[in-house]
Amino acid sequence: MNVPALPPLDPVIHAQPRLRVTVALAGLPDGDAMTFPRLQELAGLTAGNLATHLRKLEEAGYITVTKAFRRRTPVTYLALTGAGRRALEDYTAALGDLLAASGNGTPARSSTEEELPS
Amino acid sequence: MGTTAAGPEGGARTGSDPPMSARDALEVLETQRDRVSRSLRVDIVLVLGAWGVTWLAGFGLSYLASVAHPDVSWWVAGTVIGVLGAAALAVSFGLPIRQGRGIAGPSRRVSSMYMWSWALAFGTVAAINTGLTSQGLPARLTPLTWTGTSALAVGLMFLGGGFLFRDRIHYGLGGWILVTGAASVFAGFPGNFAVLSLAGGGGMLAAAVPYALARRRSPA
Fold first, then answer.
1. Radius of gyration of chain B, Cα coordinates, nearest whole angstrom
2. Which residue of A15, A96, A106 is in closest CB contact with B13?
3. What is the DSSP string of B30-64?
4. pLDDT band, very low/low/confident/very high, at B98 (cuts 50, 70, 90)
5. How many angstroms away from the CA of A84 is the closest CA of chain B?
C-alpha cells in the first residue's frame, strides 16, 4: 500500500528562532516594518543570534532589511516580503497537514534537509 | 553555522538550532502568535471597559450630586471622574503609543492621525462651550451643551473608528452614542447625566462583551 507523502516543511522557517521572527513580522499590517530592537524583544533572541537568522531569512527573500536614520541615529527596519508571508502560510498549512496525517504525533521533516544553507 | 541535519525527531536543523518536531513547531507558532498579538494590538475590551466604567460612575455620581443625594457631593463626583478619566486616557492613548514603539509604516500614521482626531475633536468641544458661555449661554444650559457636544464628538469618532478599522460593533456603538447624546439633551438637567451614565456607559460596556467573547473563542 502506498503511503501518501507527508507535506514538506520549509527548512528556512523550520527553526525555532526563525519561526519566532517570521511570526513576529507577520503580525504587522502590510507595509509596516519593525526595528531591530523591537523584533529582538518579540523574538526573545540576542542581537547576534537575531542578526544570524535575519541573514538566512533575507537570503531566502522572506524579509527586507532597510537601514535608515532617525534623528541622526541609524535604525534598521525589518519587514516580511510577500514571499515571506506566503512561505509562512504554506508552512502553517503543511504543519497542519503533517500533524493531521500522523495523528498529531509524527515528527516534522524538511523538504531540503541537505540543502539548508549552513 | 554547521551543516544541516535531521534532528533525533526528524526536524530540519542547522548546527546550532535545536531539533524541532512538528508538534513543537505548532506550539512555538501558536505561542508566538499569541505573544505578538498581545504586544502589537490595542486591547479594545480594556479601552471600552475603562471608558464604560468612567461614564457609568462619573455621570452616575454627577446625577446623584445634582439631585442632592446626601452621600454624593460634587467634590466626590469630580474626583471620581478625574481619576477614572485619567486612567481611561492612559489606556486609550498611552498603551497604543507604547505598543507602537519600534514600528513604522502606514498603520502608525493612521493610528497617529486617529489619536490626533480625538484631541482635535475635544479641543473643539471645549472651545465651542467656552465660547457659548462667553456669549451669555444661561448657566442652566451649560451642563447640557458640554455633555451633548462631548457625546457628539465621541459618537462621531467611534463612527470614524468603525470604518477605519472595518468594525461594525465600533460603528454601531458610534451610532448609539450619538442617539444617547441627543437624548441626554432632551432629558434636560440633571437627567442628562443619568442618560449618559446608563445608556452611554452601559452601551460601551455592552459593546465590549462581543470582543471579549471573540477573544475567549480565539485567544490570538
1. 24
2. A15
3. HHHHHHHHHHHS--HHHHHHHHHHHHHHHHHHHHH
4. confident
5. 15
Q: Which candidate, B166, B173, B194, places its Cα nearest to that of B62? A: B194
Which chain B residues touch A95 with a CB distance below 8 Å? Answer: 22, 25-26, 29
Q: % helix / strand / coil in chain B, to the nearest 5? A: 75, 5, 20
User: What is the pTM assigned to this prediction?
Assistant: 0.80
Residue B3 scores a pLDDT above 90: no
pLDDT digit string (tens) for B115-165? 999 999 999 999 999 999 999 999 999 999 999 999 999 999 999 999 988
The length of chain B in residues reads 220
| Closest by Cβ to A109, choosing from B3, B10, B107 | B10
For chain A, the structural domain boundaries read 16-96
Q: Do B11 and A33 touch (CB under 8 A)?
A: no
Record: contact A118-B3, CB cut-off 8 A: yes
Reported ipTM: the value is: 0.81
Residues in A 8-37 with any Cβ partner in B closer than 8 A: 9, 11, 14-17, 19-20, 23-24, 26-29, 31-35, 37
Distance from C-alpha of B159 to C-alpha of A22, rounded to nearest angstrom: 34
**What integer best gives the mean pLDDT of chain B?**
89
The class (CATH top level) of A16-96 is mainly alpha
Q: How many CB atoms lie within 10 A of CB B114?
A: 15
Residue A35: strand pairing partners:
A77
In what order do the strands lie in the sheet containing B103-104? Answer: A63-70, A73-80, A33-35, B103-104
- The count of CB pairs under 8 A between chains A and B is 134
Option in A31, A39, A99 nearest B23 (CB)? A99
Cβ contact B184:B196 at 8 Å: yes
Pick from B3, B36, B106: CB nearest A31: B106
